[in-house]
Write a structure and sequence with these properties.
single chain, about 160 residues, alpha+beta, Porin, 8-stranded antiparallel β-barrel, globular, MetA-pathway of phenol degradation
């Protein structure tokens, strides 16, 4: 019986809080231009990233890249030093590399900068560090290794 009494106030609180939270939410879709054209990354890889804000200075970012012999899935936490889509940021999370013969999970971290150019357009770049991915899967002799990133984002 107490649960029934609590449902009405909870539903009312959710109805009031969700629109406010949704108005603060922003999503974006981006592509990494370096990964797209770099022949060292499996001859160039098609890639797409989604980012959803958690607060005014944090976000979750998930990305998928695929080439001829390699697919990469990244899921990271992203924090902004200044404001969302405006200034320096850091990322940390997991990355899964699926090669032609093997796959491996590692750690990915990045430091970068992004700037809003127009109402829905953001440009940025970062230096990413990947650690823990087996050298046979990654195609590099040692880990950790570093990769540049230059991206264009559509924010909505």
């Amino acid at each position: 019986m107490k649960l029934k009494k609590a449902l009405a106030p909870l539903a009312l609180a959710a109805a009031v809080a969700l629109p406010m939270q949704a108005s603060a939410m922003t999503h974006s879709i981006s592509t990494d231009l370096v990964r797209l054209v770099d022949n060292n990354m499996d001859g160039g890889m098609f890639n797409l990233y989604w980012q959803g804000s958690l607060s005014r200075t944090t976000a979750i970012r998930a990305g998928y890249s695929t080439g001829d012999d390699l697919s990469i899935l990244d899921v990271t936490f992203k924090g902004y030093v200044d404001r969302y889509h405006q200034g320096a940021f850091y990322e940390a999370g997991l990355t899964w590399w699926d090669g032609a013969n093997d796959d491996d999970i590692g750690f990915m971290a990045a430091l970068g900068y992004e700037r809003t150019l127009a109402k829905h357009i953001v440009a940025g770049g970062s230096v990413q560090m990947v650690a823990g991915v087996d050298e046979q899967v990654a195609g590099v002799a040692e880990t950790p290794f570093f990769m540049p990133s230059l991206f264009v984002t559509f924010a909505f």
